[in-house]
Amino acid sequence: RNKMSSYEQYAKKYFGQLKGYTITNFKLEKEDDLIFPVFIMKKGNEEIKVSVSQDEEGNGGGHLFIEEMV
Question: Do 35 and 53 touch, CB atoms closer than 8 A?
């Protein structure tokens, strides 16, 4: 059995936090000369903001592949 890499373990825990949330809004936020896609998400009474960045340092907006599940 293969062990998960440390990144895989991190990603499952970190991004797994989003399970159960529903996107309720989308907006673009500008910081200096950068534009970030932002999703507002809600689960029960909890509301969170998810900003899409190209890296953990916030060096610019990133890209998500949005595809239909087949």
Answer: no
pTM of the predicted model as reported, rounded to 2 decimal places: 0.83
Instruction: Evaluate whether 22 touches 42 at the Cβ level (below 8 Å).
Output: yes
- List the structure tokens of 16: 């797994």
Dihedral-angle region of residue 16 (phi above 0 means left; psi in -120 to 50 means alpha; beta otherwise) = alpha
Q: What is the mean pLDDT of each run of 10 residues along the chain (70 residues)?
A: 84 95 97 94 96 92 87
Task: Write the secondary structure of the chain as one string of H (helix), E (strand) and C (coil).
Answer: CCCCCHHHHHHHHHHHCCCCCEEEEEEEEEECCEEEEEEEEEECCEEEEEECCCCCCCCCCCCCCCCCCC
Cβ pair 38, 47 in contact under 8 A: no
**Could you tell me the two tokens for 25?**
């809004």
